[in-house]
Specification:
With 284 residues, this protein is α/β, with parallel strands linked by helices. 42% of the residues lie in helices and 13% in strands.
């Protein structure tokens, strides 16, 4: 199962590696991505099943197919390059567009709603929690003072006026845009929901691979993997285990796989990627 199908690049690799009989369920909430993936994967005919759905509904979609378990699950979290470059989706301040940022165009909440409707304190909390923005209060105050704001460039200018330039050269609006996107799409909540489902639906020996692009996502995956690869979760000083927890997975490596220098040169957006992989244990 590829829970974040995008344009189908990873799906193609999985289908090629699982020839001749491997089946793949590809899921995405973005209809544009599904249309592109459908064309890119048409060579594989009935070996691929594409569904418009969130990976948070993993178990529902597997049940609909009558699949009790799968041998592999891939989650490539966050924003795709295709979405980032879309002229009208509003994900990037490099392109002037409406403040949208929805992965699913039918989702009821957009970035425009958050920017223009939230009280100042709630907006500041989002910027701090999801963007780890240290100047969240100043930025939220500046936004509230000038709103309504309906365009990406307009928002970037307001954030820039309330922020100091970063010595690393990162645009001062980067964290704000990240925070709004994560909040709009409930990305962290979806990760927390899908991980237990993924492990429960893996066959023994099956693997769960998760690619994350910022520390908030990776922290959730790391914490879950460590917990589920441990037999006892009781406090260290407790003499006898009372929790009854048993490991369900083993981590393939304690440290995440990072892109090589060559890969970063070829694909600069991969520079912050972290890949963590876990393998399902036999039932105890």
């Amino acid at each position: 199962m590829d829970g974040t199908l995008g344009a189908g690049g990873h799906a193609r690799g999985i289908l090629e590696a699982s020839q001749p009989e491997g089946l793949l369920l590809g899921m995405d909430v973005d209809p544009e991505a599904l249309d592109i993936a459908r064309k890119n994967l048409q060579l594989f005919d009935d070996r691929v099943i594409l569904v418009r759905a969130s990976y948070a509904d993993l178990s529902v979609q597997l049940d609909a197919l009558g699949w009790d378990s799968v041998s592999g699950i891939l989650l490539d979290l966050g924003l795709s390059s295709m979405q980032l470059g879309s002229a009208e989706r509003g994900f990037s301040f490099q392109i002037d567009a409406p403040l949208d940022m929805r992965f699913d165009p039918q989702s009821p909440l957009s970035a425009d709603d958050l920017v223009n409707r939230l009280p100042e304190q709630e907006l500041a909390d989002i910027l701090f929690k999801y963007g780890e923005e240290r100047r969240s209060r100043q930025i939220a105050k500046a936004i509230v003072q000038v709103r309504p704001i309906h365009r990406t460039r307009e928002l970037a200018q307001v954030v820039g006026s309330a922020s100091h330039s970063s010595p690393t050269g990162i645009h001062p609006a980067t964290r704000t845009f990240q925070a709004l996107r994560i909040a709009v799409n409930k990305e962290l909540e979806a990760v927390e929901v899908v991980l237990p489902q993924a492990v429960s639906r893996l066959s023994p020996g099956g693997r769960l691979a998760v690619i994350s692009f910022h520390s908030l996502e990776d922290r959730i995956v790391k914490r879950f993997f460590r917990q589920e690869s441990t037999d006892c979760l009781c406090p260290p000083r407790q003499p006898v285990c009372t929790c009854g927890h048993r490991a369900t997975i083993t981590e393939i490596a304690r440290r995440p796989v990072r892109p090589s220098e060559e890969e970063v040169q070829t694909n600069p957006r991969s520079r912050s990627a972290r890949l963590r992989v876990a393998e399902k244990l036999e039932a105890q």
